[in-house]
Every structure is written in structure tokens, then in C-alpha cells.
Amino acid sequence: MGVAVRGMQFPSKAALERHCRETIQKYGDGDLMRDEDGLFFLSLILERHDRPDEKIIVGLEDEIVGVRVRHSSGYRLYGNCGTNVNHTFVAYASGDERDFSWKKCCHGFKPEAVATAAMRRAVFDQVAAYKKMRFIRGSVTSDASGIALDWSSARVDHYPRTFAWLRDSFLEGESLTLRDVAVASDPKVGVAMADSSLRSRWAAYHDAHKTLRIVSVKENETSWREEGAIR
User: Fold this and answer.
1) Residue 90 three-state SS
2) How far is CA 66 from CA 34, 40, 88, 187, in A?
3) 191 has which bridge partners?
4) What was the pLDDT predicted at 221?
5) What is the DSSP code (8-state) at residue 32?
6) CB 170 within 8 Å of CB 162
7) In the chain, what are the domain boundaries?
8) Most-buried pick from 96, 162, 177, 210 (CB within 10 A)?
9) What tens digit of pLDDT does each residue of 206-231 get?
10) Residue 83 pLDDT more than 50?
11) CB 32, CB 68: distance < 8 Å
12) Average pLDDT over residues 71-94
């Protein structure tokens, strides 16, 4: 089955992977991709990643300096991550780099992960509005630890009601499972919930039951394990 990225057609996912690998191998360790190559990989994220908003941060698009390639340094920095031989990162002017799995973008993510991504995308505006509200007077401190955070280092965290709890509670009420959530490809946001009625009901449920806070990246990644988290 053919696939397309940035308007380029590929006869298969394997052909897309070959194109990406050949592009990456043109660069040395630590190099930034040249303009068109970098734009292609950014489009790969937007069109095929299950969480494009974690790699291309809304509000910081103008601060992206490019896509950085790491070979041996990728292993030294990140260990055995799932990008096979090569590691690719969205690089920001601040020095922040967001690694992404280009191979998974080529071949696709698990159906449950894609459905979850679509459900996250459906309520993204609510999460983004909360972050903007918290930063209306400038920098903030983490609600978990009190450390100072700026816009790029802050994350909106579902706590104590985790996103997984909200998702599963909603689906249970709809007598659905994650595999029942139909998704559609969207070139701007990666994936979206295909059923507009279900999407509207989910957005309303999330808005009524969400509990949000501001934390650091690391705190956001581990908060679901905390004793007070409702999972």
C-alpha cells in the first residue's frame, strides 16, 4: 500500500523507510539536515507521528532550527532507543532537542497508541488554553515541586485524574474500547478521531472532568505512577 509525505509518493512503507535512511546517512554525527531534507522530516512527524505536538511544540515553531542527525552520539546520549542505527531530533534555538522515531513514523504506531493520540488531539485546545492561562503573567513554578519553569520546559499534566483514566472512563460509558475508536489521517495534526459526534462527546466529557496542573517534562512523564494518581 502506497504512502505519501510532503506530497511525495512512495510505493510502500518500506520504500519510505529507505528514503529516510538514505537521507540520514548523507549527514555526519551532529549535523543539521539541509532545508528540504529537514522540512521532509518535519512533515514526516506532522503527518505520521502519533504525538506530533510533543516534537513540534505549539507556539515554538519559529524557534525550530532544524532536524539534527546523531549516529554514535545518539547512543551515548540516549542509550538503546528505538531508532535502530540513526537518531533524529527536532532541534530548537534554546538548545532543546526532541528525539523522534522516524522508523515508527514510516511504519506506523500500534492501533491503541494511534487512537489515544487522536483522543489527545481532540482535547488539545483545552490543554493549550490551560497552559496559556497559567503563563498569562509570565513564568510559573511546578505544581509538583515548585521549581521555576518557562514555556518550553513546562508541561500540562492530567493529575490526579490521569488522561488514561479520563479516556477509559469515557469509552466505558460509550460501551467502546480503544480499538473501536476510528481515526483519520490529518496532515496538520497527525491523526484525528474520525467520528465527529464521538469526538464532540469526548471533548465535552474531558472538559467537564479534567484536572490539570503545570509540571516539568520529567514530572509529567512519571506523575501517573504517583500514589495520588487516579489511573
Assistant:
1) strand
2) 8, 11, 10, 19
3) 185
4) 83
5) B
6) no
7) 3-107, 111-225
8) 162
9) 999 999 999 998 898 888 888 888 87
10) no
11) yes
12) 66
What is the rounded CA–CA span in Å between residue 188 and residue 200? 19
User: Once rounded to an integer, what is the mean pLDDT over residues 103-115?
Assistant: 85
* SS3 annotation, 156-180: EEECCECHHHHHHHHHHHCCCCHHH
Matching residue, cell 514555556 = 151
pLDDT per residue as tens digits for the range 27-41: 998 899 999 999 999
Element (H or E) spanning 107, and its range? Answer: helix 102-107
Name the 3-class secondary structure at 122.
helix
Q: Cβ(39)–Cβ(6) under 8 Å?
A: yes
Q: Which fold has domain 3-107?
A: Nuclear Transport Factor 2; Chain: A, (3.10.450)
Query: Is the bond preceding residue 160 a cis peptide, omega within 30 degrees?
Result: yes
| Number of residues written out for the chain | 231
At position 1, the amino acid (one-letter code) is M
Amino acid identity at 84: N
Whose CA is closest to 56, among 68, 42, 73, 76? 42
Q: What is the pTM of this model?
A: 0.69
